[in-house]
Amino acid sequence: MLQEIIARKTLLSSNLVVTFVTMVWPVANLFSIYWGEYLEGRKDRKNLFFIAGILGRLSLVVTFFVQTGMHLVLLLLLVYSFNTFIIPVQNSIFQFNYRRKIRGMLFGFSQTVYSIFLVLTAFIFGRVLDYNEYLFRFLFTIVGIFGFLGIITLMKIKVEGIPEMVKNARAHPFISPIIATVYEFRKNKPFLMYEIGFMVYGFGFMMALPIIPQFLVNKLGMTYTQISIGKVMIANAGMAVFSPLAGFLEDRLNPILFSGISFIILGFYPLLLNLSISQSIMDPVSFVYFSFGVFSLGMAGVMMNWTLGSIYFARGRDSVMLQSVHVTLTAFRGLFAPLLGYFLMTRFSDTAGFVGSSLMFFMASVIMFVTYKKCRDGLYG
User: Fold this and answer.
1) How far apart are CA 320 and CA 38, in angstroms?
2) For 113-165, what is each residue's pLDDT tens digit?
3) DSSP one-letter string for 91-128
4) Fewer Cβ in 10 A, N or C end of the chain?
5) HEC string of 273-323?
6) H-helix or E-strand spanning residue 44
7) Residue 56 burial by CB count (10 A; 0-12/13-18/19+): exposed, middle or buried?
């Protein structure tokens, strides 16, 4: 949550390097369709979970050797590359272990627990980094150890009812997942349109990422504690409160419609963030907190649909491949969206980047509403 702030504030990275830091997670997701192709229909995933835990979590102990922003980029590339395996498997746990009528609520409560601990951790980390900002290496090591223990816990969860699939032994390991993705989009038009909507949303989300660190650090002069309160604590406190409600709605609303509503709320977040520096209603830092409060409300719904939405389109079969496609597509927007935000910020202004981000959110909501109407009217079969 603080990686790009650390790159800017402690490692004194340029705006371009900070942009690279924001790109690492989505670009690493490119590997997800290959994990999905390999995992689909396979029941024994424990050994891969263990490897992912070591390389995707425990590897954070290497942070002690990080001296520059580019060092951080390389380390995060390793961490996030194996995270793309963990996400689809977690999705399978929710799909096959929990009934449809209560799945959203249970996921909402899990997000609440996650957010509560994230809020507590963020407050502690913010105070520690304000005391000595170079202690981020020690803190990242702690994160890696706890993350690894979390993976060990996930390994112990049994997943029942995964349907067996016959694999084509002659399929090319590089080409096969791409062909499977194209075929999925051709036969599952609602899923294609859903992903297009999320693609546009992702552009809005990632365009703002390289702008926020220099805006908060250089323009507003916020401390680590203040940034942690806004960017992590308030943003996730809202998710802690609203995730069970989002889960309740997820169990009852179409995920396409629910995503459209969530994107509208998010559309106001970059506009409010940009307004914080010029408005006279309240202290700029307090207005930043308000902006992240709006963000948390919208993201409660987005996280629900980002994680569970692919289950709806799988229609009973293992959703691991669909979720892998969903995760992989973040790589494509991750290649361009942060660079677009960087271009708008450096060529024009922060305002141009924030407004562009907001327009993407609103456009994504329109795509979702149109898609929902066409699905409801039976135009997609």
Assistant:
1) 10
2) 888 888 888 888 888 988 999 999 999 999 999 999 988 888 888 776 655 55
3) HHHHHHHS-HHHHHHHHHHHHHHHHHHHHHHHHHHHHH
4) C
5) HHHCCCCCCCCHHHHHHHHHHHHHHHHHHHHHHHHHHHHHHHCCCCCHHHH
6) none
7) buried
List CB contacts of 308: < 8 A, sequence separation 6 or more: 91, 94, 103, 104, 107, 250, 255
Distance (Å, whole) CA 3 – CA 72: 8
Give which of 293, 311, 164 is closest to 229, Cα–Cα: 293
pLDDT band at 166 (very low <50, low <70, confident <90, very high): very low
H-helix or E-strand containing 132? none
Question: Percentage of residues in the chain with pLDDT exceeding 70?
Answer: 83
Q: What gap in Å lies between CA 94 and CA 275, rounded to an integer?
A: 39
Q: Are residues 290 and 224 in contact, defined by beta-carbon separation less than 8 angstroms?
A: no
Q: Are the beta carbons of 15 and 296 closer than 8 angstroms?
A: no
Q: State whether the Cα torsion 13-15-16-20 is positive or negative.
A: positive
N- to C-terminal Cα separation, the chain: 41
